[in-house]
Amino acid sequence: MSSRFRKGLRVGRSAERVSGRGFSRRMLLRAFDSTAGAVSREFLEIVGKIGNFTRRLTATENKHNANAMYSILTECPLFRGLTEDQIHEVIDGRGDYTLADYRDGELIARRDTAYSGLMIIVRGKVHGEMPAASGRPVTIEPLEAPQLIAPAFLFGGYNKLPIDVVADGDATIMTLHRGYLFELMQSNVLIMSNFIDIISNRANVWSKKIYFLSFRSLKEKAAGYLLGHSTEASPSVEMPDIREIAQYFDATRSAVQTVLAELEKKRLVALSGDRITVLNRKGLEDILK
To answer: If you average pLDDT over residues 117-136, what whole number do you get?
Structure first.
């Protein structure tokens, strides 16, 4: 107990002793005001100390989170080749970015909305959704930190998102404003080179997807998928969850399982847990003719 608090109590007790000795009401009120003042000052000091401690704790936590973010961004394709310190200097040079947290299943961005800032996953996973002819959404390319979201749609005459972006579990998204990213590419050749590589790689991936969409039957889609994800030297393919494959093929799980079982029966593939081994590439190629 502080000296001021004890002093306030002594004043209060003195007021009690003199209350019956003819002292005025004003004197008694002054005594109690003194006690209340001492307690209030003591309380405010405690609150102030708690506030200072909380601010120091928050600052430490923010610093830790920032350091973790820069560490993750060293693995980001856009900043490939840069150190944590270099990324820190680039990102915080102007600080023209935002961070937003999302919960599982929460919509991050809606299809056909203007895409004015490059989104980077710094924590967690997301996936794209697009309505299929059947009416149910088709999952498009699940992504995890520290990948970019739809970088090819940031610039150009039609810079709108082609898909809904949904969080898979808790996720944190960094958004770099388009103008700021353009300045970064002008001032840092490595970032510009990385971005060009990203766009070129995405174009290659989408050309393969367009080729895949040209297949009509589910058997053709399965054969094309297995051929595209395997080689003569590495014939084994690690398959995602059957639900994801079914969504990717825009088919039911039972239909996908039936087609895979049929391919195995014809000795074109071998099924083993979550892996499929291509046994006869020519047989799969014949399906596509």
So the answer is: 85
CA angle 92, 94, 97 (to 5 degrees): 75
Provide CATH code, domain 93-213.
Answer: 2.60.120.10
Q: How far apart are CA 86 and CA 69, in angstroms?
A: 13
Give the Cα separation of 199 and 203 in Å (integer). Answer: 6
Instruction: Name the burial class of residue 281, with classes exposed (0-12), middle (13-18) and buried (19+) by CB atoms within 10 angstroms of its CB.
Output: middle
Is residue 117 over pLDDT 50?
Answer: yes
Closest CA to 114 of 81, 85, 156: 156
pTM over 0.90: no
DSSP state of 102: E
Q: Give the per-residue pLDDT at 64.
A: 42
User: Looking at the chain, which runs of residues are DSSP E strands?
Assistant: 97-102, 107-109, 117-131, 137-144, 148-149, 164-177, 236-238, 269-272, 275-278
Please tell me the distance from the alpha carbon of residue 158 to that of residue 115, in angstroms, as a whole number: 9
Please, is 52 exposed, middle or buried when counting C-beta atoms within 10 Å of its C-beta (0-12, 13-18, 19+)?
A: exposed
Of all residues in the chain, the percent with pLDDT exceeding 70 is 73
In which residue are the tokens 């980077």 written?
Answer: 120
Annotated domain spans of the chain: 3-59, 93-213, 218-287
Determine the residue type at 267: R
- Contact at 8 Å (CB) between 199 and 148? no
Write the class of the CATH domain 218-287: mainly alpha
Distance, in Å, from the CA atom of 105 to the CA atom of 102, rounded to the nearest integer, reads 8
The pLDDT tens digits of the residues spanning 165-196 come to 999 999 999 999 988 999 999 989 999 999 99
Q: Identity (one letter) of the amino acid at 170?
A: D
